[in-house]
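hey
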């Protein structure tokens, strides 16, 4: 009878030890998964910030380019070389495409 009690106690203790180890293992897997998610979110956030900065720089460049083109066209039209007619504007556009 004593051996049966000892065997049952060993089985119960073994079950608790295995359960505790599997719970610790699952806890580590959850922590690792959450850590990977955080790394991915930070990486994506950094990429979005870089994309926004690039778009802002491109918009600034485009704005400056358009302003310079309008000023150059206005200066060319205003100094008497070409009248501001649709034909002269088309001629200037044709020069740009050549």
């Amino acid at each position: 009878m004593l051996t049966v009690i000892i065997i049952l106690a060993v089985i119960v203790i073994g079950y608790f030890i295995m359960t505790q180890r599997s719970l610790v293992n699952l806890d580590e897997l959850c922590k690792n998964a959450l850590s990977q998610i955080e790394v991915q979110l930070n990486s994506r956030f950094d990429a979005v910030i870089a994309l926004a900065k690039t778009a802002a720089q491109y918009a600034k460049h485009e704005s400056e380019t358009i302003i310079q083109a309008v000023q150059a066209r206005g200066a060319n039209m205003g100094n008497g070389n070409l009248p501001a007619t649709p034909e002269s504007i088309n001629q200037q556009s044709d020069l740009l495409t050549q």
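The chain has a mean pLDDT of 86. The helical segments are 2-78, 86-97.
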